[in-house]
Design brief:
This protein is α+β, with helices and mostly antiparallel strands. 41% of the residues lie in helices and 10% in strands. It contains 15 helices and ten strands. It has helices at 48-60, 64-75, 112-123, 126-133, 139-147, 172-187, 190-195, 200-216, 249-254, 290-312, 326-335, 340-349, 354-376, 383-396, 449-463, and strands spanning 31-33, 82-85, 88-94, 100-106, 160-163, 405-408, 411-414, 419-423, 429-435, 438-441. The strands form two sheets. The chain has a five-stranded antiparallel β-sheet with strand order 1-2-3-4-5. A hairpin with a 5-residue loop joins β3 and β4 (100-106). α1 (48-60) packs antiparallel against α6 (172-187) and α11 (326-335) crosses α13. The chain is elongated, with a radius of gyration of 36 Å. The relative contact order is 0.07. Residues 1-26, 222-231 have a biased composition (Gly residues). It comes from Streptomyces viridochromogenes. This is SWF or SNF family helicase.
């Protein structure tokens, strides 16, 4: 299908050229991209505009077998350097036997009138230009262009093949070229605009000139720098809110498309600082305790400082305790509570007795929210986890020394002793020992259930059933 009719570029330039003249709307601009490595195991298009390019190819090609062969060629790295110029993309593509073919795909260039409409659309929105500079194709720009009769992305029949193998449809070589170009489009949508007739530098120069012209054009209310109908200045040193002098957004934007670099991140203070003193001569409202509020303010400042340190560190991390429930957070606060009466309020507020809160804080010190969950919640492990634990426990003791174990859910109690083993949802095993009528955490967790159970039994023998060390 060797069509070179009206509206298509021609391939007279040398393959592999490194760029053309920077001026003008068509004909002279050209970019050459080095051959890309094989694309095994990755998609050819990640962006929506890259996928739209491939859809145009796949909707146009009449022979699906040749299309698949082209995809295999592209994956294998058989496409050489790709030259992009207005109206045409070109590359040498090799068959498996090493035979090389020059392959071209023709794309219709936009007319001068169409480019004028495109420039108007892009200049109307700073967001369109910012996205292009960030190597993205904004969907709204494509939609606005389509509404104005401009098809930036190709559709069915818009990719016209020419290949030295003289195939009548998209052959494996032109198909491979299109798949490879999709990878280029992913990285730089200006490649598509160059096919349509304008190079990046040309477009940006024309857009900037248009923006400057708009900013300096006389306003409808009496001229640039003059006053509007109410006597207020309209540009330049226009009065802003409150009568303060300023610069209009159009003038500021006309200075250039690129924003200044962001300032350096703030330097984090070494500590969260001192909380305000709230115990003043003024009597507080009933039920409000200044000391408790100072405690909460100190805690909030420390947590905020920790979040800031984590966010500005070399690797962003979530701050610990960011997703605690109210009952969990009450335990966290009780760990650092300075006064017994604050601890009592935390116990009441979280629905615990003072003894239950004391036990919860002991668990928290050993492992935070995970340890608290093991203390207060019950769950049912899967059979595989239980089988692995049973095997490990059987291997850890001789037959005549192995303690008999009674299991209930995720808890294994050594029969005739005050030792217990608990499995957390994270797969770690926690030692527990009986203290009077309750079970208490007896140490840090371990991945090995035998190690954790040995710690539980040792603690139970040391403290005794009453927890008095006998």
């Amino acid at each position: 299908m060797n069509r070179t009719g009206h509206g298509y570029g021609h391939g007279d330039g040398a393959l592999g050229g490194q760029g053309g003249s920077p001026g003008g709307g068509h004909g002279g601009d050209e970019r050459t991209f080095a051959a890309l490595p094989p694309a095994k195991g990755t998609a050819f298009a990640r962006t929506w505009w890259g996928r739209a390019w491939l859809k145009a190819l796949e909707d146009t090609a009449l022979d699906g077998v040749q299309l698949k062969a082209g995809r295999r060629h592209a994956r294998a790295g058989a496409v050489g350097a790709v030259t992009v110029r207005p109206g045409r993309i070109t590359a040498v593509v090799k068959d498996r036997d090493g035979t090389a073919y020059r392959s071209d795909v023709l794309v219709r260039e936009l007319s001068d009138d169409e480019w004028e409409r495109f420039l108007d659309l892009a200049a109307d929105s700073a967001g369109h230009i910012a996205a292009l500079l960030d190597r993205e194709m904004p969907p709204h720009l494509v939609e606005d262009a389509a509404a104005a009769g401009l098809d930036l992305l190709p559709g069915i029949g818009d990719l016209d093949p020419e290949c030295g193998c003289e195939a009548w449809d998209h052959c494996p070589h032109t198909s491979a070229l299109c798949y490879q170009v999709a990878r280029l489009l992913d990285e730089d949508p200006f490649v598509l605009l160059l096919m349509r007739g304008r190079a990046e530098r040309t477009l940006l120069d024309q857009l900037q000139a248009r923006s400057v012209a708009r900013a300096s054009a006389p306003s409808a209310s009496g001229g640039s720098g003059g006053s509007g109908g109410d006597g207020a200045p309209t540009s330049g040193t226009a009065a802003g809110a409150g009568g303060m002098p300023g610069v209009s957004a159009a003038d500021a934007y006309a200075e250039g498309f690129l924003l200044p670099p962001l300032p350096a991140p703030p330097v984090v203070a070494t500590d969260p600082g001192v909380s305000p003193a709230l115990d003043t001569d003024t009597d507080p409202e009933p039920g409000v305790h200044p000391t408790a509020l100072e405690f909460l303010a100190t805690d909030a400042a420390a947590r905020a400082h920790g979040m800031l340190v984590a966010a500005l560190g070399p690797v962003h991390q979530e701050s610990a305790g960011a997703c605690l429930t109210a009952a969990q957070d009450a335990v966290r606060l009780a760990v650092d509570s300075p006064m017994p009466w604050i601890t009592a309020r935390l116990a009441a507020g979280s629905g615990r007795t003072p003894a239950e809160l004391d036990l919860a804080t002991r668990a928290w010190r050993l492992g935070g929210a995970a340890a608290l969950s093991v203390l207060e919640e019950e769950w049912a492990p899967d059979g595989e986890s239980l089988a692995r634990a049973g095997t490990r426990l059987s291997e850890a003791w001789e037959d005549d020394e192995r303690p008999a174990l009674h299991r209930s859910g995720a808890r294994w109690t050594a029969v005739g002793t005050d030792g217990q083993l608990r499995l957390g949802v994270d797969g770690r095993w926690w030692p527990y020992a009986r203290e009077g009528a309750r079970w208490s955490p007896a140490g840090p967790p371990d991945r090995d259930p035998a190690v954790a159970l040995a710690a539980a039994l040792t603690t139970a023998l040391t403290t005794g059933p009453t927890g008095d060390g006998t």
